[in-house]
């Protein structure tokens, strides 16, 4: 564990708390992509199956359990509790286009051709693109509540912080995980546009609005 | 550098 990773994980934790805070205070899931949230549940469930057969640390197990339960809870909030505030008509990204290539990639790139390792690989590839339905929705509506953009910024910061973590591990621990690194760089790159608007508008006190 | 696949990250 190094500081980059710790701050990355804390940022991930903060992003989920911000998401829950947004839903609870506005009593609405408006502006959130159900598809992205459903993809995150898929990511966590397929990656953290090792909770049942591989113990890393208490920290690791607690975080994994939190990510699975909180992401499932968000789906419940979107589909049941605050269902009337969810608008599927603007959540139109075709997730088949993400799932198919991720299945294919995980069959080609994995560390062992076993069910668990292929699922792990799949979850890494899927996580790298899971935010796309959300960013696509943002692009479509052209604006977002500030709290939603803070959620996305924390999520993007988590991914960005994992990059120096990998550089650190490469030099200090002689460890490198090519699948995670490649997917992680792609994932972080997807946030570049968002971060540009976030820094130049939201953090200057303006509304998050995309040029028409 | 050695490849991991150890999956100790989240």
From TrEMBL, chain A:
Subcellular location: Endoplasmic reticulum membrane
Keyword Amino-acid biosynthesis annotated: no
Membrane topology: Multi-pass membrane protein
UniProt xrefs under InterPro entries: ER_ret_rcpt (IPR000133)
Pfam families noted in UniProt: ER_lumen_recept
Transmembrane domains' residue ranges: 55-76, 97-113, 179-199
KW Protein transport (keyword) present: yes
Coiled coil: none
Alphabetical keyword list: Endoplasmic reticulum, ER-Golgi transport, Membrane, Protein transport, Receptor, Transmembrane, Transmembrane helix, Transport
Main location: endoplasmic reticulum
PANTHER family named among the record's database cross-references: ER LUMEN PROTEIN RETAINING RECEPTOR
Family: Belongs to the ERD2 family.
Name the record gives this protein: ER lumen protein-retaining receptor
């Amino acid at each position: 564990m190094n500081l980059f990773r710790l701050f990355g994980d804390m940022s991930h934790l903060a992003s989920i708390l911000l998401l829950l805070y947004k839903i609870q205070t506005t009593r609405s899931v408006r502006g959130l992509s159900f598809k992205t949230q459903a993809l995150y549940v898929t990511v966590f469930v397929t990656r953290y199956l090792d909770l049942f057969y591989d113990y890393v640390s208490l920290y690791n197990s607690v975080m994994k359990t939190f990510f699975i339960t909180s992401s499932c809870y968000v789906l419940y909030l979107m589909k049941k509790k605050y269902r009337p505030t969810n608008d599927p008509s603007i959540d139109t990204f075709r997730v088949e286009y993400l799932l198919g290539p991720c299945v294919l990639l995980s069959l080609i790139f994995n560390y062992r051709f076993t069910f668990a390792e292929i699922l792990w690989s799949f979850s890494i590839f899927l996580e790298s693109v899971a935010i796309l339905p959300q960013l696509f929705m943002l692009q479509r509506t052209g604006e977002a509540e500030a709290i939603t953009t803070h959620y996305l910024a924390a999520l993007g910061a988590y991914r960005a912080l994992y990059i120096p973590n990998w550089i650190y591990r490469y030099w200090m621990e002689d460890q490198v995980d090519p699948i995670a690194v490649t997917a992680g760089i792609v994932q972080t790159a997807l946030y570049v546009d968002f971060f540009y608007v976030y820094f130049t508008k939201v953090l200057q006190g303006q509304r998050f609005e995309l040029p028409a | 550098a050695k490849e991991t696949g150890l999956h100790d990250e989240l």
